[in-house]
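Cross-check.
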Amino acid sequence: MVYQFSNAETNMATTIASVHLLFLVIMTSGLPFHKAAGIETEKVALLKLKQGLLDPSHRLSSWVGDDCCKWRGVVCSNRTGHVIKLNLRSLEDDGKFGGEISHSLLDLKYLNYLDLSTNNFEGTKIPKFIGSLERLRYLNLSAASFSGRIPPQLGNLSRLIYLDLKEYFDLNAYSDESSQNDLQWISGLYSLRHLNLEGANLSRASAYWLQAVSMLPSLSELHLSSCGLSLLPPSLPSSNLTSLSVLVLSNNGFNSTIPQWLFQLRNLVHLDLSFDKLGGSILNAFPNRTSLEKLKKMGSLCKLKTLILSENDLNGEITELIDVLSGCNNSSLEHLNLGFNKLGGVLPNSIGNLNNLQSLLLWENSFVSSIPISIGNLSNLKELYLSNNQMSGTIPETLGQLNELVAVDVSENSWEGVLTESHLSNLKNLKELAIFKFSLLPDQTLVINISSEWIPPFKLKYLSLRSCQVGPKFPAWLRNQNELNILILRNTRISGTIPDWFLKLDLELEQLDLGYNQLSGRIPNSLKFSSQSSVYLIWNHFSGSLPLWSSNVSTLNLRNNSFSGPIPWDIGERMPILTELDLSHNFLTGTLPVSIGNLYGLITLYVSNNYLSGEIPELWELWDGVPNLLVHVDLSNNNLSGELPTSVGSLTVLIFLFLSNNHLSGEFPSALQNCTYLRNLDLGGNRFSGNIPAWIGRTMPSLWILRLRSNLFNGSIPSQLCSLSSLHILDLAQNNLSGSIPSCLGNLSAMASEIELFRYESQLTVLTKGREDSYRNILYLVNSIDLSNNALSGGVPEGLTNLSFLGTLNLSINHLTGKIPDKIGSLQRLETLDLSRNQLSGPIPAGMASLTFLNHLNLSHNNLSGRIPTGNQLQALDDPSIYRDNLALCGRPITAKCPGDDETLNRPGGDDQDEDEDGAEVEMKWFYMSMGTGFVVGFWGVCGTLLIKESWRHAYFRLVYDIKEWLLLVIQLNLARLQRKLNL
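Predicted model, tokenized:
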């Protein structure tokens, strides 16, 4: 039977078949009409995003055409064609995006990856709508110069796996309180594995940050450095952080000990707690040695690859920690950084069992003893930094076995012995070697004795050998080191000339330091230098004309040599980027070149102690309105003449100006009024004349030193100088000043109390203790007032006794009258007091005996009267010349007797003298009698007892025998160890 379809049924079947066919077509074609519609929407969204962005480098120039999947930074799904990834990260060579992020970003509904990092959005806020991109799994807004708080809407991104907001902020807006964040919003990020909030202000979350991140069960990396988290909880609120492998909490200033829970994280691989003000011992993190062993068995410590605890206040030893770490079956530790702490003790021999260790940074601690021999077992070690400890002994030859070693710094320790090529023989990858001490003392206990025939297997880029014996010749083993960038051979007893082979290496040096040696000869101009390079050839015997090297040199220090001839006239053009120029203590002649004025970046200029002559040219005119940067100028001890040029007034940031011991003349330079930052002003030893201007006290408020001695200044001392509250050296001696000493000098507060002055180094000659002394490193500690050799009149101001920290007061060779102030004893720090050659009268105050620091006193050639005080420090100052030509003085140490004194006291051969001699004889008899009695009692008290008591005698000699046997055993053991070391 054949079934007949009706027309209706036929039409129905046809329709269903057509629908099925259409469905199949659609499925096989990937939904072309939906795809086209979706892509068009996303393309429009991207174009709107482009329109809102600032693109100075035209990085989005490819965003044209119909296929947005080919646009730069855009990635589409291979299956659906939708935009799933948008990478607008700025690389070094790219320009940075700015402007505004368009809301059209929300139309990219399939977006799961967004990177806007390292751009410059100029302090705009992070868009809140980013929290609506619900498919996002990766979000990176780091270093994009946003501002404000992290929008809590980001907590809606429940699928997010990677979130990086490191330094998302604009540095100019970061201090705003509106940038303080909490961490409540992260609780919704259930899937998060990587969280980086480095630099974000999380101070509001300081109390609960650990609890907040513990709610993220999948978290494996956590970076919270520099977040203002002041609290490091002592315990873990929950055990959800079982997946955590990387934990960075550096630079938060926790100011606590290391909590125990940190080392209980079983999967921890990387831990960084640097710059956190952590104190106590590292072992505080472990209750006892048993807990250490337990953690090792759990694998918590054995999985650790990186441990960074540098820049803290940790103390104690590290032996137990190293023993446990090295006791793992296969220690994973690759990087150990404990530098810049207060750790001490010896480095354990077990450190050689950390066979995967690549970097060992223990610098700036207090470790003692030598480097363990087992260091040679660390076959993977690339970095070894042990500098600035208290280590001593010899450097082991096993160091030479570390063929992966790239950098070694064992500086600032007390090494001794000899370092030979054996210590370096297998270091084929070595690039940096530093063995130095900053000390310039002659006792060099470490000798670098490397054969001149030896050819190193490495090519160094950095070599620093200081204060160890390398000489007497320039080290020939450097003759194949043609990759050197920095070469420092300071204070290494090298003599002779720089060899020709060194010049043929054709180096392009960043730094060359051959200072404090005995090198001689001429310096060739053929040396090459890289950009912003430094040259230090100080304290040698180099001679000839000044070398002019590459225009790349920024620091040139040739002081204390024997260079002669003129300073090259074109030095400003040949070396235009000089910032430091020191040619002092040579034999240079001629005039100062005008081209020095073209060195617009020059900060320090030292040409003192030469034979330069002529006038100082107008060196310092403004250059296109840009002020000169000179901070320190020293032209002292030359033969310069004429007036100081007015262009010195353009040195508006000048701090130190030394022009002493020349032949400069004219009135006090008025142009110096513009130098308002001056701290040290030395015009001594010239021919300046006229009045000392009162404006010094107003325009130079920060002045530390004012030295105008040995000039022709006249008039009075301006009282305005009393307002210089930081002044600690005032030297106006050897002028023609008149009038009275301003009583307000007692207001110079820097000499009245222990004020914290900026610790600076500068050389100055100061008359103290009756002689001229040159101060450099401790100049900032010298407090002195010298007004001697003028025509000052009136009395010694009582106010000067307020300067309790004054060290030198010299008012000699004036016309002062009246009495010495009764409160002179208040100058408790006074070491030198010279009031000689005046017309002072009256008694010497008794309080002067209380000046316990006084070691130089001169009151001669006055009209003082009465008894000279005695006691304390004055007993030691027994030179009669101190009181010479004060006819009315009496008493010791001068011969004049005071009324009422016994006339027989000083008569030779008198009864008192006989009595003294008799008393001395009796005392000597009693001395010898006491000594004899003491010997008898002591000898027989011991030996007599041993003779009488047999049991004591046996015990004593048994003790002596045991001590002898112990000493013999110790000597034999040490000899055996020595033989093993020497393989005898």
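The longest strand covers residues 528-536. The mean pLDDT is 86. Passed to J.P. for a second look.
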